[in-house]
Amino acid sequence: MTDAKPPTLNAPLVIEKFWRTRWRQESVHVELSFFEERYLINVRIYRTGIDGVDRATTKGITLSVAKLGELARALVKAEATARSLNLIPPTNDGGGE
Asked: Distances from the Cα of 6 to the Cαs of 19, 36, 93, in angstroms?
C-alpha cells in the first residue's frame, strides 16, 4: 500500500458523453474534476452551439467523489426498477429516444 497523493486535475477529465435527445442539441457529460482542493464528479447538460462547441448549462449535478459509490448504486437501482416496470426494454443500452 502506498501513500501516493492523487493527481491534481488541471482540466476536467471527460469519462463519458452521450446525446440527451435524438435532435443532438444537448448532451450529457460525465466528468471528474478538481476544484478548491476537492475531487468532484460532474454530470452536466451541455448545449451545442451553432459553431459546434459544447457549452455547460446550469442543469446538472456536482458531488464529491466520495459520493460516487452512492450515486452509482442509486443509478443501478433506478435502472433495475425501470426495467421491472417495463419502462425500458431488457436489451436497451440507454441509447436515447
From this structure: 31, 14, 32
